[in-house]
Amino acid sequence: MTRNMMEWVDSILAEEQKKGFLVLSFPAIQKMGITVKDLIASSDLQAQAMKIVADSTPEAAASVSMMDLSLEAEAFGSTVHFSDGEVPTVTGSIVNSEEDADALEVPEIGAGRTQIYIDALGKAVQLITDRPVFAGVIGPFSLAGRLMDVSEAMIYCYDEPDMVHTVLEKVSDFTIKYINEYKAVGANGVVMAEPLAGLLSPALEEEFSCDYVKKIVNATQEDDFLVVYHNCGNCTVKQIESIASNGCRMLHFGNAIDMADMMPKVPSNIIAMGNVDPAGQFRNGTPESVKEETIRLMEKCASYPNFVPSSGCDIPPLSSWDNIMAFFDGLNTFYAG
Questions:
Q1: What is the pLDDT of residues 115-174, one digit of tens each?
Q2: Integer-rounded Cα radius of gyration of the chain
Q3: How do residues 228-283 score in pLDDT, each as one tens digit?
Q4: Residue 225: helix, strand or coil by DSSP?
Q5: Residues 6+ apart with CB under 8 A from 154
Q6: Residue 337: what pLDDT?
Q7: How confident is the model over 13-40, as a mean pLDDT?
Q8: Is residue 192 within a helix (H) or strand (E), and if so which, with residue range?
């Protein structure tokens, strides 16, 4: 369903009671009796999973598709490790020199599993019409890092900056095309995950991430299509001036930071979301601890009209649904109090 997403953001800012915005998709496998491997191989199953999550969380602000951060790297040629109960991960590297960077080919949309995910989103928007539907994509520096090896990428920023920029130009061009395919099949926006940038200094984040995020946002975001920026690194509070300039109206932060430290630094016209711990609470906590943590988060941040409660990152596949529902119970308890 086509929506004016800028008006949607403004409507959230005006609401006294905020709906939760969970990055939630993979736990649907428990309700479907399938594995992660099954889910990532089928557009039909992914669309069904998103519909199940939407029906199970009527109080959620939006629907978010699978946050599979191996997808784009696989399309470029990276090796990916798959398992039944965990999200796929990239292994090894394919860019180890300036020559590798120059030779790196930008894949066609549809390479690897990208067409499966595009088709899934197109099917999901036909099933979910009561809220915006977002696709998931990886951010430019985080994708470049997977191609160069995450730890090496940090060193290359100092030792081989030209090589890093070469890779970033190519992955940004691919990401723009990829996002526009999601737009074409009816997505209301994308959640762009840029976690690796959260480990950089503010100056390096601006040079190796923000400038490329801006390029992608400028080429894809419109009134009816929103780019949501996610960064779960522990340096984001120091980076916020740069991050807030990237053109995104919604920013999503991980549990490595205290949202009470972040909120005073976020411009009032930009929504900031976060950050109940996905692993510590949703996956390994209890309904009681998730509820308590949600209420504690609201007590610290709900006075900011541009704060929206969320998970700190993608909720792991085997997280308890009792824990997930306890998040919404916590919100209801807070607002009832």
A1: 999 999 999 999 999 999 999 999 999 999 999 999 999 999 999 999 999 999 999 999
A2: 19
A3: 999 999 999 999 999 999 999 999 999 999 999 999 999 999 999 999 999 999 99
A4: strand
A5: 145, 199, 200
A6: 84
A7: 98
A8: strand 189-193
Residue 296, CA distances (Å) to 88, 259, 260 in order: 32, 11, 11
pLDDT value, residue 114: 98
Distance of CA 45 to the CA centre of its chain: 20
Confidence of residue 318 (pLDDT cuts 50, 70, 90): very high
Give pLDDT, residue 314: 97
Task: Give pLDDT, residue 207.
Answer: 97
Element containing residue 79 per DSSP (H, E): strand 79-81
In the beta sheet, which residues pair with residue 89? 81
Q: What does the block give as tokens for 291?
A: 């509820």
Q: Using omega within 30 degrees of 0 as the cis cutoff, is the peptide bond preceding 218 cis? A: no
Q: Do residues 80 and 91 make contact, with C-beta atoms less than 8 angstroms apart?
A: yes
Q: What is the pLDDT of residues 71-115, one digit of tens each?
A: 999 999 999 999 999 999 999 999 999 999 999 999 999 999 999
DSSP string, 131-176: S-EEEEEE-HHHHHHHHH-HHHHHHHHHH-HHHHHHHHHHHHHHHH
Nearest to 333 by CA among 301, 293, 281, 275: 293
Position 102 scores a pLDDT of: 98
H/E stretch holding 274: strand 271-276
Own/partner contacts of 147-155, CB < 8 Å, gap of 24 or more, are 147/73, 147/76, 147/78, 147/93, 147/94, 147/95, 147/104, 147/171, 148/93, 148/95, 148/96, 149/92, 149/93, 149/96, 150/196, 152/93, 152/96, 153/196, 154/199, 154/200
Query: Cα separation of 176 and 235, whole Å?
Result: 26
d(CA 168, CA 37): 29
Beta partners for 273? Answer: 252, 308
Q: For residues 85 and 317, is the Cβ–Cβ distance under 8 A?
A: yes
Among 273, 104, 75, which residue's Cα sits nearest to residue 177? 75
